[in-house]
Amino acid sequence: MTHPPPTDAEIIARSLINSEEFGTIFDRYFDAIFRFAAKRVGSELAADLTDEVFLRAFQLRARYDLSRPLCRPWLYGIASNVVGDHIRRREVTNREAMTLPEETPDPAELADNRIDAEAWAIVLKNALSELRSKDRDVLLLFALEEMAYAEIAETLSIPVGTVRSRLARARRRMREHLPDLAQTPFPDKEAGSD
Amino acid sequence: MTDQEKGDNASDPLLRALRDLAGDPQPTAADRQRGEEALLQAIARERVNPKRRWSLRKSWSLSVVVAAALVVVLGLTFLLPTPTAASAALSEIAAAAERVDPLVIPPQAFAYTRSKTTVLVVQPSDAFGDLTVPVEGIAYLLPQTREVWIGIGGVVQMRITTGPPSFFTPEAEAAYYSSGLDQIDQVGETVTGAVRGALSLFESRVWPTNPDQLKSALRSLVPPDRGLGETVEILDLALDLLRETGATPELRAAVIHVLADLDLQLLERRPDGSITLASTYESPLLTRDTFTLNPNGTLLEESSALLEGNPNLSIPSGTLVFHANYKATSFVENLSQPHQPASP
Fold first, then answer.
1. Residue-wise pLDDT tens digits, A79-92
2. CA distance A49 to chain B (A)
3. Radius of gyration over alpha carbons of chain B, in Å?
4. Which of A64, A80, B11, B84 is 20 to 30 A (C-alpha) from B331?
5. How far is B70 from chain A (nearest CA, A)?
6. Complex prediction ipTM
7. Whether the predicted model's global pTM rises above the 0.80 cut
């Protein structure tokens, strides 16, 4: 008889007795957490931050809610905090070093396809950097991790209504910075509260 | 993701642009290996079972070694009966264990067990950040109470309460609290968690009830190259099985027959029929494990004592680095009983 593989919650429970069991959580989610971090801070820094995510998760595992079979939202929540802390530290350092932002190309030119992909990337990055960090987190979890609203809510420990309102606001602000996307019918009706 | 969310995500050019910008970065083998090593170090620091994780360097003075060796030799010469006495006592208990009625959990009820343990924890010096601590780190004894609720299908809930640690020096105590290790150890906290599925070695497979086959099965699980010797390795695994409330009388009897075949010393036989046995080994410090069984083969108590101290960690000889006693199983009607968490 074949048994179904143990759930994340079962593995975390076992790891309270035999800590080596936590290695299975690492095996299951290392790549995903690395990609999550790399998309935000680049591959070079992602390795360090991913290590930190798993060390924090290991230390905090006794507080994991074992009624939740999948620990993906919990790990992404820790990863959001670790990456967010890193970005905040970097922003402070940049401010202290008087680092100038990258020069933003004229978005109107982008619409005419007159500048290359590299310039387009700068426009997008700068538009993202203008967002409130809480809005940016929701937008990136939805766009890059393709999480459902409910999963984002669980990851960030916020109500689903707040996910909707932050996502709508993030999209509206991005559209303001990217006029060539302005005609896209984004569903930006704000719901919930924040 | 709902269909609406999926469609929204796929059709939005902004989100597509963000995905293009992020690309699909992948970790290298070196990234993964480094992450594994960092996690393994953290796991190694978390010492739950001293018998399995006690791995300090042997760096104590010759006088301590000689004194401890004398204690052991005298103990073995004058106090301890021969292994034959242990085998005979265990065989009697195995026969009684086989006749015990199996545990039957009533419908709509849970078996409830409680154990109190104290374990030695050694935190390496790098756990203390900028604080100055001995290069070997600091050692302390951490008490915990573990409560387990067992339903018809197995363990369903655990509750762990951690008490304040005790230290071997005031400096170690100050460093511990200054660096916030009490929060990591969750001192003073009670953690309750729902559990489903196999939790332990016992629940991970179907165990043979033939003692020879059982011993072979346990021997196959002994990690290689630990140098502890077969007696202590098999004893360690056998006690894991004996500790389980759900072990059948047949399995319990087979485990005790396996124990009877090990090189154990009978320390004490009490008027109520319970017996205490011991095994002495180097791990690498000279250590003595003891355990007590009642006449029906139920595990009542177990401990590990260091027969020699470690001056580098200020641990005196004779320190109990692990101790656990087990309360008799009772039945409760729901998972909120008993109402108050046990104090460690």
1. 988 888 787 776 65
2. 10
3. 24
4. A64
5. 36
6. 0.76
7. no
